[in-house]
Amino acid sequence: MLFIALSTAGLLLAFSAFAAFGLPWLVMGNRAFEEFPERRDQQMMAGVLGTAAVALACLPLLNAALISAGPQLQVFAETVLGVPERFWS
């Protein structure tokens, strides 16, 4: 089920990035992004899409920590976050 959700989210993210940046580039060419440094709306869209892409890439790692019980969370913290074993004892 997580694979289907991640696949759908990735597809929608790719479509939104294409609609926001790819389609104007196809229609107007390089002129579409000549004013990118001055336009805050395009910068905000790029930032939100980038943040969503990073969050989507990190979701499988964080999913294990969010739904885990105590002992499994300890294993997650020791392996992924690099928390030493003496911290838990």
Strand content: under 5%
Question: Which stretches are low in confidence, meaning pLDDT under 50 for 5 or more residues running?
Answer: none
Number of helices: 3
Q: What characteristic shape results from the CA principal axes?
A: elongated
Measure the end-to-end span.
36 Å
How many structural domains does the protein architecture include?
A: 1
Write up this protein:
The protein has 89 residues and is an all-alpha fold. It has one domain (2-87). It is built from three helices and no strands. It has helices spanning 2-28, 40-66, 70-79. Helix 1 runs antiparallel to helix 2. The longest helix has 27 residues, at 2-28. The radius of gyration is 19 Å and the shape is elongated. The mean pLDDT is 78. Keywords: Membrane, Transmembrane, Transmembrane helix. The chain crosses the membrane at residues 43-66.
Brief overview:
This protein has 89 residues and is mainly α. Helix content is 72%, strand content 0%. It is built from 3 helices and no strands.
Helix and strand topology:
Blueprint: H1 2-28, H2 40-66, H3 70-79
Helix pairs in contact: 1-2
Keywords: Membrane, Transmembrane, Transmembrane helix
Transmembrane segments: 43-66
Identify the notable features of this structure and list them briefly.
mainly alpha; transmembrane; transmembrane helix
